[in-house]
Every structure is written in C-alpha cells, then in structure tokens.
C-alpha cells in the first residue's frame, strides 16, 4: 500500500524539520545523519548534489532538498509527502507561538523585548548579506548587477520579481556573449 | 477572496525568491507594503521569531505571515503557496538532472540572479535598519541631528555585530542566543 511507503517518508522529514534551526544550511548535517546514515535513502554525493541545486533553484532550500529525496524514492507522491513532512512542524509550532504572541503584543515588556530583538535582526540580516555577497558578487558584471538592483530596489517600489527576471536575462547576455569571445 | 490572493502572493514568492529563507524577505516586505496586511515592524518581529524556533526559517516566516493575515487557514494556505513552485520546479529538474546541471543557459541565468538576490536582501535589510535605528519623526520635530539616531539601538547594534564578527569565541554561537540576549536588554533598558 502506498500509505505505508509515504508515511515513514513524511515522518522522517518532519523529524528533520523539527531539528532544523534557522536557514537551509543548518539542515545539511541533520540530513546527512537521517537520510544518508540512518535510512540510506540517498548517498552522500546525491545529497550534496540535491543541496547544491536546491540553493540555486527558486524556493526554500529545505523544501527543495526534501522534494528531491522524496521524488527519488517514490516519484511525485514521494516528493509531496517529504515536503509536507518538512513543513508540518513549522506550521504547528509557529501557529501556536503566533496565537500566544498576538495576545501579549500590547504588554510593555513584550514591546521592549521586540524593540531589542529588532536591532539584533538588523545585525543578522547584515551578516547574511555579507556572507552572500562574498559568494555571489565575484567579478565586475556581478558587482554592477548588485549595485544596479540595490539602487533600484531602494529608490523605486517595483516588484522584486522584475529584478530577478531582468538579472537572469543579463546573466545570459553577459556570460554567453563573453563565452563566445573567449 | 483573501485566501486566494494569499496563495498567489506566496506562490510568486516561492517562485522568484532564490537562495533560501532570507531571500523571501524582500518579497514579503513588498507584499506588506502593497496590501497593507502587516507593517515592516511586524515583519521584523516575525523574522526574529522564525529564526528562533524549530523549522526552516523560510517556512516559519510564510506560516507566521499567513497566520497574521488569515489565522490558521491563512498559515496553511501561505505555506502551501510558497512550496508549490518548489515542488513543481524540483520535479521537473529531477527529471533532467544531468542536463540541468550542465546547461549553460541555466548556469548563466543564475550567474545574474545570484547578485540580484543578494542586492534585494540588502535593500530589505536597509529598510529594517532605517526602521529600528533612525527616528525621522523625532528629527523633524526637534531638528536636532542627535534625535535622528536611536543611540541605544546603535550601541546594541555595534555590540551584536562585534560579538558575531570580531570576537572569535562568540562568533559561532547560534543566533537564538543573540536574539534572547537582545530581548533581555530591550526589556531592561526600555527599547
């Protein structure tokens, strides 16, 4: 029966979801232990491949990787079961926290706490940007794309979708024209 | 039909945000500004909670924003909206795995998208900084440059930055510790 294959997949990825804190990168060691070592559902190399592709394809890295592993095991249904698994704990935990915080949002201590937390969030975003900057701004064209998008995003209210589409077109234009010349 | 719109907004976010959870931030900020569903300050709080609770941050944010907009059904619909494009894209990519990895158009496209994605996150980050560390209203009222900046906030900002970048023993600590410490400082010093 299908359910008997898909449910363990859901459960394992729910476990991975609970144990992940923060971004997708934090998930890799947990996936290595659960998927490669404990279950043997993928090899180390496959997982690294999935993870690499998950980073450069659209969406949340955790979801992309889960879909990959699930798809490899049981096709489309497997991909969906693994994704629902990785997402399930977040939905439960966050809904509870959000419901609780909504009732306490006006308490002065909570307000002051979030006043401090927001400052910390600024630093966390800055650190994430610096880390990404080192990896993604690698030469003059990518620096120009970075500066152009940053300026436009800061001073216009256009949708981020537009910038992503234009940047993809620019990337193809720059790389493939440059490639021909070389 | 708010749920339909919610699904569509998060579908777009899932389709165009490249590079993980933080990459969804500029999209979520734009959705908030355009629809009026939540403010930038609320989004910063949701980001902090998402970073400090179990689960991938991007999914936590989607669930939280969805709940804020439409309660429990909203949280489910927003999250499903965000993962739908991922599932579709990955199922297609998995079918052509080898061809995808070595396709030069794909590679060149992502060469352009990656710095753009970084720039979008940077711009959203600057928005949060302006919100937390600069008080334009006080500046307009008093006209003094000293009132423009939130000095307590700047001090905390400098301290957290130093602890996560310069001081070696604390740099590797989990962000949740800095978030918790900042909450305590916020309460004690009345942020």
Number of strands of chain A: 1
Shape category of chain A: flat
Dominant shape of chain B: globular
Alpha-beta classification of chain B? mainly alpha
Poorly predicted ranges of chain A? none
Number of DSSP-assigned strands of chain B: 1
What is the percentage of strand-forming residues of chain B?
Answer: under 5%
**Unreliable segments of 5+ consecutive residues of chain B:** none
Tell me roughly what share of residues is in helical segments of chain B: over 70%
Your description of this structure?
The complex is a heterodimer of chains A (182) and B (191). With 182 residues, chain A is an all-alpha fold. Chain A starts with a helix and ends with a helix. Chain A has helices at residues 2-19, 28-38, 44-56, 61-104, 108-136, 140-155, 160-181; one strand spanning 21-22. The mean pLDDT of chain A is 87. Chain A folds into two domains: 2-104, no CATH class; 110-181, no CATH class. Chain B has two domains: 2-133, no CATH class; 135-191, no CATH class. Chain B has helices at 2-16, 25-35, 40-52, 57-95, 97-102, 104-133, 136-142, 145-148, 151-165, 168-171, 175-189; one strand spanning 55-56. In chain B, helix 1 crosses helix 4. Chains A and B meet through helix 1, strand 1, helix 3, helix 4 and helix 5 of A and helix 1, helix 2, helix 3, strand 1 and helix 4 of B. Strand 1 of chain A pairs parallel with strand 1 (55-56) of chain B, so a sheet runs across the interface.
Fill in the keyword field for this structure.
heterodimer, A: 182 residues, mainly alpha, 2 domains, 7 helices, flat, B: 191 residues, 11 helices, 83% helix, globular
């Amino acid at each position: 029966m299908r359910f008997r294959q898909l449910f363990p997949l859901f459960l394992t990825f729910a476990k991975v979801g609970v144990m992940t804190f923060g971004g997708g990168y934090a998930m890799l060691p947990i996936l290595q232990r659960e998927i490669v070592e404990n279950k043997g559902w993928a090899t180390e190399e496959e997982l690294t491949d999935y993870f690499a592709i998950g980073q450069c394809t659209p969406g949340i890295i955790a979801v992309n990787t889960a879909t990959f592993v699930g798809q490899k095991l049981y096709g489309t249904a497997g991909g969906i079961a693994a994704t629902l698994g990785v997402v399930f704990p977040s939905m439960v935990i966050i809904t509870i926290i959000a419901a609780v915080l909504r009732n306490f949002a006006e308490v002065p201590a909570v307000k002051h706490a979030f006043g401090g937390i927001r400052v910390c969030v600024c630093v966390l975003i800055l650190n994430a940007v610096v880390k990404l900057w080192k990896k993604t701004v690698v030469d003059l064209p990518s620096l120009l794309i970075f500066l152009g998008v940053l300026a436009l995003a800061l001073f216009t209210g256009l949708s981020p979708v537009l910038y992503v589409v234009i940047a993809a077109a620019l990337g193809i234009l720059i790389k493939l024209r440059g490639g021909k010349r070389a | 039909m708010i749920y339909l719109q919610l699904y569509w907004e998060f579908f777009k976010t899932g389709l165009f945000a490249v590079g993980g959870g933080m990459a969804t931030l500029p999209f979520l900020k734009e959705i908030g500004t355009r629809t009026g569903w939540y403010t930038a300050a609320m989004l910063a709080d949701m980001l902090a909670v998402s970073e400090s609770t179990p689960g991938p941050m991007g999914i936590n944010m989607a669930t939280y924003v969805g709940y804020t907009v439409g309660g429990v059904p909203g949280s489910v619909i927003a999250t499903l909206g965000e993962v739908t494009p991922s599932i579709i894209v990955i199922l297609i990519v998995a079918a052509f795995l080898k061809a995808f990895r070595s396709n030069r158009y794909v590679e060149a496209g992502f060469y352009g998208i990656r710095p753009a994605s970084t720039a979008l996150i940077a711009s959203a980050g600057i928005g949060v900084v302006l919100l937390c560390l600069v008080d334009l209203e006080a500046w307009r009222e008093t006209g003094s440059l000293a009132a423009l900046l939130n000095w307590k906030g700047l001090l905390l900002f400098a301290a957290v930055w130093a602890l996560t970048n310069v001081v070696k023993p604390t740099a590797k600590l989990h962000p949740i510790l800095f978030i918790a410490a900042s909450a305590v400082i916020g309460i004690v010093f009345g942020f």
